[in-house]
């Protein structure tokens, strides 16, 4: 009796695996192998730190130029998008590509609103540094009692 349940369970597991692979087949259609990772959450790995009057975010963007990145902020919503296009020199033949081409977009909801006019961005050694000062309305205020 347990063997039958085990067989059925294995059958459903195999069907689920097949369904996942078919789903990936449709989403990856037309893209060269190796670009799927760009859409994963793992791309643009980010660290967010709170400083005294704002935040600092560091994002991994190896091999990207500043012209291929687009940063938008509105209130506490931050969106970073871009594209990577690695062109091969004439006569090169691909044996393996782990860093893919394509576009990406990632968004973050920050803990507080940010003053978009004072945001600074720096790209250094494949890391994008964002300095995100809090808006005046988001800063704590001392209230005096009358």
From TrEMBL:
Matches recorded under SUPFAM superfamilies: HSP20-like chaperones
Pfam families reported in the protein's UniProt record: HSP20
Source domain of life: Bacteria
CDD domains for this protein: ACD_sHsps-like (cd06464)
Span of domain SHSP: 37-146
Family of this protein: Belongs to the small heat shock protein (HSP20) family.
Matching PANTHER family: HEAT-SHOCK PROTEIN 20 FAMILY MEMBER
Protein name: Hsp20/alpha crystallin family protein
């Amino acid at each position: 009796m347990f063997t039958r349940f085990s067989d059925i369970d294995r059958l459903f597991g195999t069907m689920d695996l097949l369904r996942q692979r078919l789903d990936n087949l449709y989403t990856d259609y037309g893209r060269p192998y190796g670009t799927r990772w760009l859409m994963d959450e793992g791309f643009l790995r980010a660290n967010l730190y709170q400083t005294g009057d704002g935040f600092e975010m560091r994002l991994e963007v190896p091999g990207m130029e500043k012209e291929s990145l687009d940063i938008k902020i509105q209130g506490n919503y931050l969106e970073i998008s871009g594209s990577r296009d690695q062109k091969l020199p004439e006569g090169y033949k691909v044996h393996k590509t782990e860093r893919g081409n394509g576009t990406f977009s990632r968004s973050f909801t920050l803990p507080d609103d940010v003053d978009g006019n004072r945001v600074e961005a720096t790209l250094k050694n494949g890391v994008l540094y964002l300095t995100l000062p809090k808006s005046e309305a988001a800063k704590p205020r001392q209230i005096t009692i009358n």
